[in-house]
Amino acid sequence: MKFATLKDGTLDGCLALVSRDGQRAVRASAVAASLIDALQRWDEVHLPLCDLYESLNAGSAPGAFAFDPAACAAPLPRCPQWLDGSAFLNHGRLMEEAFNAPPIPLFDTVPVMYQGASDDFLGPHDDVPLPSEADGIDFEGEFGVVTGPVPMGVSPEAALACVRLVVQINDWSLRALGPHEMKTGFGFLQAKPSTAFAPVAVTPDELGEAWRDGRVQMRLQVQWNGERFGEPHGGEMNFHFGQLIAHAARTRRLTAGSIVGSGTVSNVSRAAGSACIAERRVIEKIDQGEIRTGFMRFGDRVRMQARFDGGADGPFGVIDQRVVAMAATAGAA
Amino acid sequence: MKFATLKDGTLDGCLALVSRDGQRAVRASAVAASLIDALQRWDEVHLPLCDLYESLNAGSAPGAFAFDPAACAAPLPRCPQWLDGSAFLNHGRLMEEAFNAPPIPLFDTVPVMYQGASDDFLGPHDDVPLPSEADGIDFEGEFGVVTGPVPMGVSPEAALACVRLVVQINDWSLRALGPHEMKTGFGFLQAKPSTAFAPVAVTPDELGEAWRDGRVQMRLQVQWNGERFGEPHGGEMNFHFGQLIAHAARTRRLTAGSIVGSGTVSNVSRAAGSACIAERRVIEKIDQGEIRTGFMRFGDRVRMQARFDGGADGPFGVIDQRVVAMAATAGAA
């Protein structure tokens, strides 16, 4: 199944199903008011949602309409926990060099993960208001999974069975603020403003062979202001999503609807390009001796789309966002 | 006003008002279903809640009943964001020594803060299920505030005006896991299992002169297995809550119901004792040359209660929790 959330002025939005071909949608609110509602009552609503999805695909769902990604919020506009790993070790090693930071202990064997804000996600076409270009505005293209309820102490294998949905993520980052927050040991906070999501969340079966070994085996195509930036492949993820979920649940249970991210998709091959500017910058420094690329400016756009290995469009839809200056009045409220 | 949340099987629980003397309560669900609902509609529900509170205090509220803290969840069983500072620098400096960590840069001038899980808080008398005594089980007594909506880029002064409620917190910590997570730079995750709250959240006016300079000017009395552990005073907080909120909102807005914590209450005077075991241990090492105190064992209890300077009971009620082994079946689910 393919899910989207229509903006309707509520905090959780209105649940919709999107047809397999991505062209049509139908409100599913008669079955579950919102995606978080569906995830919390999954066993109860799963079959009725499947029925509605099949009727949508067959062209027989009453009230179906043309799917408009611009009308969408994030599939989960808010969620219980947003836990983002850094499971592409190639990226992590490059970032250590970018931040001039000491090697992360046990980086090859124990996942690293930060907890981000999960109350105020951005939709796929939402503007991104930020306070200052001097903060080093950067995108990070990622894949992620949405979990059902996960018990404390779950094994990686059992954790993988807790995956309900797969999502595509832009984890906005402020690079001028990250190194200090890492040095405090308390982790990212100001360096990680609201995260954005592609419009469509899908059950793993929608990915077919591209959901394999607990990884999203697809390329993430990234464009910055219309120019090719990179298309690294998700298959190079060094920890699979079951391992990431189990890491998160080592001393806590996760409630239904928690999101676990892969961290920036990154490949060893330089030909793949990058899914964030910081990584390109450090590659420039290593390979060319100097950094040539600046961070984003207000008005800049980033576009992200996953593609199957054959080149076909991925099922998540497109993230296409513009960075804008925070409203001048905000600080005065 | 004084608020509590009655367990009723829902994720947000049922809103109740607690009388000024802490003896009686009345369901407020006719005005707002839950505390988060009240915080999201504060301007609309504030006056009706005040009216109900006054009738409760006057003994004329229909349906009032004896207040039972054991029937309470955390005032907010879940909330949009849980952001915990470390605003008692005395504690932070001691912990650096305990963790054998390098000094945190800018620690005196820039607050440090981690983002914790906010989807699954513990009530004041809930057992605390944890996987292993070897993780170094510790309590942390804190004060905190619940915010209304906070705009991105707010000033510390304007942030202080966003405080809606004051709460008392036990920030459970696993000390064997903290140092590694600090060294990764990604911050605490496994080291911070579910956080617990005293039963009653209060509007700042309920504290009278004890809410002053953006700080809770009260002692936090901590007992471990019935023995005195410490009673450090909240007035020594080096950053006030407005500064902590403004730090959190530097690059994001906070939605209504976000909770910002003080970090472990800690005083320079050794006579005050401590509000967590890790701090006592490092003091033992410094003052007596060796650590004498172990961490908590399954079956141990911790009790926390705030007191006004004159010695009277604080308005938050009591946290009294027992640590238990995680259910053996959890990992198999």
UniProtKB/TrEMBL annotation, chains A, B:
<feature type="domain" description="Fumarylacetoacetase N-terminal">
    <location>
        <begin position="1"/>
        <end position="78"/>
    </location>
</feature>
<feature type="domain" description="Fumarylacetoacetase-like C-terminal">
    <location>
        <begin position="83"/>
        <end position="323"/>
    </location>
</feature>
<dbReference type="InterPro" id="IPR036663">
    <property type="entry name" value="Fumarylacetoacetase_C_sf"/>
</dbReference>
<dbReference type="GO" id="GO:0016787">
    <property type="term" value="F:hydrolase activity"/>
</dbReference>
<protein>
    <submittedName>
        <fullName>Fumarylacetoacetate hydrolase</fullName>
    </submittedName>
</protein>
<dbReference type="Pfam" id="PF18288">
    <property type="entry name" value="FAA_hydro_N_2"/>
</dbReference>
<keyword id="KW-0378">Hydrolase</keyword>
<dbReference type="InterPro" id="IPR011234">
    <property type="entry name" value="Fumarylacetoacetase-like_C"/>
</dbReference>
<dbReference type="Pfam" id="PF01557">
    <property type="entry name" value="FAA_hydrolase"/>
</dbReference>
<dbReference type="InterPro" id="IPR041072">
    <property type="entry name" value="FAA_hydro_N"/>
</dbReference>
